[in-house]
Structures are given as structure tokens and as C-alpha cells.
Amino acid sequence: SPRQGPAAAAERPDPSRLRPHVVLAQENTQIRDLQQENRELWVSLEEHQDALELIMSKYRKQMLQLLEGRKAEDAEPVLKVHQANSGEIESQIDRICEMGEVMRKAVQVDDEQFFKIQEKLAQLELENKELRELLSISKESFEVGREDLPD
């Protein structure tokens, strides 16, 4: 018949003790995936910013060439359109820069969270190791104590 009582219960691994390690491992994987995705998004954002800057500089150059080739009175309506367009494009660039800043902060928060979890995991592993050592010492002293007992 199976043994009952605290001795039998102590030998079975407590499932609630095993779970945090598994959960932390899953969170580590998710965090690494998110960090990779953040880095890729960041690179993509910078490429978009570079492309927009290039478009703006080409646009300005074309507008200057167009304005140089016309008389002052003919140029005024074109100049107004140019100002309106460049204002809109610059506001889009500003929005992209703001999004970039938000993403940069998100990456920073993710990194900090990742390090906190790693620290906690290391702490738990050390604690686990120390508890195992204590358990083995107490088992050894128990065995020695039993050997000393008369039969």
C-alpha cells in the first residue's frame, strides 16, 4: 500500500514550485522575440526616415529649378503649393520621429523588464541550489544518526 503522511508528500515534487521556472523561460523567449521585432521595426523606421529626407531634398531641388526657370509673378502660385506640400511632408516626418521615440522607449522598458526577469531567475536558481545542498546535508546527518542507533 502507498505510504501516507508528510514523509510521502515531501518526496513528490510540488508542481507549484516547478512552474515559475517554466513561466520565466517562456517569458524570456517572448521578450527575446519582442526585442528582435523591436530592433527590426527600428531599422525599418530609420529606413523610412532616410527615404523621406531623400524625397524632400529631391523635391526642394526640383522646385528651385522650376522657380529659377520662371518669372517672379508666375512663380508665386507654384511657391504657395510648394510651401503647403513641404509643410505637410515635414509634419509627417515629425510624426514618424515621434513614433520612433515611443518605440525607443518601449525597447528600453522591454530591456529593463528582461534584465529584471533574468536577475530573478538567477536568484531563484541560486536559492534552489542552496536548498538542495541543505537538503543533502540534512539527509546525510539523518543517515549517520540512524547508523549510530543500536539495532
TrEMBL record:
Coiled-coil ranges per UniProt: 114-141
UniProt keyword annotations, A-Z: Coiled coil
InterPro entries reported in the protein's UniProt record: SIKE
Keyword Coiled coil: yes
Family: Belongs to the SIKE family.
Protein name: Suppressor of IKBKE 1
Lineage: Eukaryota, Metazoa, Chordata, Craniata, Vertebrata
Gene field: Sike1
